[in-house]
Amino acid sequence: MTKADIVEIVYGKLNGYSKAEAAKVVELVFESLKEAVAAQEDVKISGFGNFAVHEKRARMGRNPQTKEPIEISARRVLTFKASPVLKGRLNG
User: Fold this and answer.
1) pLDDT, tens digit, for every residue of 43-89?
2) How many structural domains compose the chain?
3) Which residue range forms the structural domain that includes residue 13?
4) Rounded CA Rg of the chain
5) Are 51 and 90 within one domain?
6) Whole-number pLDDT of residue 23
7) 57 and 16 fall within a common domain
8) What's the rounded Cα separation, in Å, for the pair 42 and 64?
9) Could you tell me which residues are beta bridge partners of residue 50?
10) How many Å from the N-terminal Cα to the C-terminal Cα in the chain?
11) Confidence (pTM)
12) For the segment 31-40, what is each residue's pLDDT rounded down to a tens digit?
C-alpha cells in the first residue's frame, strides 16, 4: 500500500471533501508522525501499535568479504510494535 492508496481510501470515506483535501490530511498526519519521531517521542496509536526510537551503541563488526574488523557507529533506530488488536486481526 502506498501513500496514494491511503489518500484514495481517505477520499472515499470523506464525503464532501476533494481529493486534494484528503491528500493534505494524509500528509499532515505523516508530517506529525515524522516530527514526533524526530523529537524522539514515542508514538502510540491505539488499536494499531507503538513507534519508538532506540539508541544503538557503537560496536565492532566484521566485513563479510575481507573478514576485516570494522567499527559500526552508534545510531538511532525506529522500531514498531503492533498492538494486541492488530495482532488479533492478523491472526484471525
Assistant:
1) 999 999 999 999 999 999 999 999 999 999 999 999 999 999 999 99
2) 2
3) 1-39
4) 19
5) yes
6) 95
7) no
8) 35
9) 44, 81
10) 21
11) 0.76
12) 999 999 999 9
